Amino acid sequence: MLNHKMIVTGLARVVLAAVVTISLLGCAEFRKLASKAGTYDGPSQAIGEGRGHAFITLDANGGPTAIGVRMSEAALLGLPAEPPRNADGWEYVLSLPKEAAIAGYNHVVIDWNPKGHIPPGVYDAPHFDFHFYLINVKEPNLRASVILTPSPATCNK
Question: Residue 51's beta-bridge partner residues?
Fold first, then answer.
């Protein structure tokens, strides 16, 4: 016949085994959930006849290892041949995924410059400019601009 002490001891061992098993499995699951490794894509935007989006890649600790833009091949087709009236190029605003906040970036702007822009002989061929912004897209007045003025010696060469 089992005495009270043997029953309590047996139950205590079963409970202890269950707690240890649940704890170990729980920790394994927590580690899976805690890993932020992966590439996260922002929403897709129409560009030319294709699409483009911004992305960020994070390591297992959630640190950024890459940030960039992906465009389909068709995005290079059907782009405007002329700039808009009062601007050098066409802007395509790409939102970054929420996971990019760790890197400090808010959004990316791709400028398609069909006729290029100043200075002549340097950037005056059709091209894209890629701008990575730390500010909110709704705060354009906070954008900082840098104006480079060539020296007379450079212009006379």
Answer: 46
> CA distances (Å), 96 to each of 39, 79, 109, in order?
12, 23, 10
Contact 87, 33 (CB under 8 A): no
- How far are the Cα atoms of 91, 95, 125 from residue 12, in angstroms, in the given order? 68, 55, 78
Nearest to 53 by CA among 2, 101, 96: 96
Using CB atoms within 10 A of its CB, is residue 75 exposed (0-12), middle (13-18) or buried (19+)? buried
Query: What pLDDT band is residue 136 in, cutting at 50, 70 and 90?
Result: confident
pTM, 2 dp:
0.66
